[in-house]
Amino acid sequence: MKLNPLLAAALVGACGLASSAAHADALSWDPSWAFSGFGTIGYVQTNTDQADFVSPGQSAGASKDGSFNPDSKIGGQVNAKANNVFSGTVQAVSKYTGQGNWKPSVEWAFLKAQATPELAVRVGRIGLPFYMVSDYLNVDYSNLWVRPPMDVYGQVSFSHFDGADAIYQTSLGSTTLTGQVFYGDTTANESVRIHSRHQVGLNLTAEFDNGITIRVGRAQGKITVDSASLDGLTEILSQTPFAAVGEQVSVVDKAASFTGAGISFDHDNWVGSAEYTKRKTASYISSTTGWALTGGYRVGKFTPYAVVSQLKVDNTNVNNNIPTSVPQLAPLAAAVDGLVAGQNIAQKTDSLGLRWDAYKNVAVKAQYDRVKPDGGPGLFEKVQAGFGSSPVNVYSVAVDFVF
Amino acid sequence: MKNLAISRCLAAAALCVGSASAFSQVAVVVNPKSPLATMTADQVSGIFLGKSNTLPSGGTALPTDLPDSSPTHELFYTKVTGKSSAQVKAAWSRLVFSGKATPPKELGSSADVKKFVASNPDAIGYIEKSAVDSSVKVVFSAD
Fold it and tell me: Three-state SS string across chain A, please?
């Protein structure tokens, strides 16, 4: 993790602010630390052998052959507090990766300065707040579903960034308002590595006392995909009259943004959420809209729920005008078409599930999803010819725990 | 026969109400030197659900919890925050695993809570009302 001078300056500034704002006794050395952990043992099976159901970033998962890969994970976190102002958090998570192993990754590693009761500055590796439940994306126990709706959460697999943020939280009557600004760089290890540099973002949350939370957020940055074959294709295209197509395909320092709005409620025994998100890029990675609606009703320790969601491709971002009639160009035209077709992640999902709070820190869940890919692979991997003509049934059971 | 059934029901209900008033009162307590006189249910919930880390008097709150197994724990969260233990656990898991807040310090008994509150000016805790004594000050109570 690199710490660039700007971030170092931010930390120094935050420390200064903290020291001047805090009482002398608050800065006394009063260390404490806590370990906590979370995990999921989840099993998924589908009714097709033509594709694998995966979690974002993975390249292999469940088919008719069931798999523990999509949902299972284990995480541990250490919070260390020096005093009322300075604290640090490290979180590591092991789950099945895009490279096909369970290598743990450091999701969080930040120092936090609570400069005033309202203002906190964090520097280091911080969770990327793209979604409504980004903060506890890996902590399935915290959420109603077996997994967050993929039609929204499958759009971007970045989960953290290396940088800094500032969080301002204040109360207005019984409403809690939180504003967050962040800046940093990030990498996601899918089957290829994807980087996003100079990301800036804003996140606003209002939490009302009747159990309603509203959130809007926006982030933008410059993304790059490390792929020799992709670089090769754009390099060849640059030597043809169709260099413009190559430029549309290329993912080297391309502008990308993610915008989202959501609302969640937990009132009396009704729980639910609605989330609407837009992914935009200036590359062959398609621009998409994802939304999801969840509703559930708590009956004692049981919460049955239903979800409808959709992921649409708004723009392929590539206008492939390479003529297929010219034999030398036909393979290039086909290669571009293939890339674009692979980016058709459009799909619709209807889900039914049940959460059972079996024990004080254990939830047992079962979920049925009916996924309808819309003319492409959807969010499935290892897709074979003929896939998508009929909806895919996905059956999941999971045991989530925190300790 | 029918009347008998009804009177049995009433007797059972009366018993329930009777026992409820004896045991199911929770007092939220602070240090006797605290400038706080009273707090609202919203203010108390805010602190115990991690929405706020500040006391209405301006200090950084030091909340203390009773174990999940304590009946007062369930009673406090149900009556004051309107949430079950499982909901509270889920709410805290969201805050803890995003590094946003640390949960209230868990102490073993009401006696421990009183001791902690009596020795920390910004401490806040809850105990059954019958355990209240002069070492702490009641700022909110729920029946």
Answer: CCCCHHHHHHHHHHHHHHHHHCCHHHHCCCCEEEEEEEEEEEEEEECCCCCEECCCCCCCCECCCCECCCCCEEEEEEEEECCCCEEEEEEEEEECCCCCCCCCEEEEEEEEEECCCCEEEEEEEEECCCCCCHHHCCCHHHCCCCCCCHHHHCCCCCCEEEEEEEEEEEEECCEEEEEEEEEEEEEEECCCEEEEEEEEEEEEEEECCCCEEEEEEEEEEEEEEECHHHHHHHHHHHCCCCHHHHHHHCCCCEEEEEEEEEEEEEECCEEEEEEEEEEEECCCCCEEEEEEEEEEECECCEEEEEEEEEEEEEECCCCCCCCCCCCCCHHHHHHHHHHHHHCCCCEEEEEEEEEEEEECCEEEEEEEEEEEECCCCCCCECCCCCCCCCCEEEEEEEEEEEC
